Amino acid sequence: MAVSRPIVFTTTHRVRFSELDPYNHVSTGRFATLYVDHRMEGLARFEIDFIRPVLADHEITITSSVREFRGPDAMIECSMTDASGKVLSKALMVAACVDRQTSRSIDWPADAIARFYEADASR
């Protein structure tokens, strides 16, 4: 069985004045908001590694992809880089699959998992 590569989602955002703290860096709470805005709702747990400060008028690029699925949880790796490609921060997002009828978490269905991976070109 061939292993498919995860689809990497990418967005670009220009840092605004209202996102800065008194030290002229992107405020801690705003990092999480940027990642959540980038990826999806349904956030269960979030960890951020701050590597470099993000300053006003920086153009940042955010990428994310599903690393693995564990039952109802999708482990999503996120990374924020500047225009030169330097890593500014990394995050781990855990998103749960929720049944619409019961509002309870369920294991990710195979067809939903498949949407997060590129089609296998060898078939």
Description:
The structure is a single chain. The chain has 123 residues and is mainly β. It has a single domain (9-114), classed as Roll (Thiol Ester Dehydrase, Chain A). It is 13% helix and 37% strand. It contains two helices and five strands; from the N terminus they run βαββββα. It has helices spanning 28-38, 110-114; strands at 9-14, 43-50, 59-70, 73-82, 87-96. A five-stranded antiparallel sheet has the order 1-3-4-5-2, with helices on one face. A hairpin with a 4-residue loop joins strand 4 (73-82) and strand 5. The protein is elongated, with a radius of gyration of 16 Å.
Q: Terminal Cα separation, in Å?
A: 10 Å
The name of the CATH architecture is Roll
Poorly predicted parts: 41-45
CATH first level: which class?
A: Alpha Beta
Question: How many beta-strand elements?
Answer: 5
Q: What is the gyration radius calculated from CA atoms?
A: 16 Å
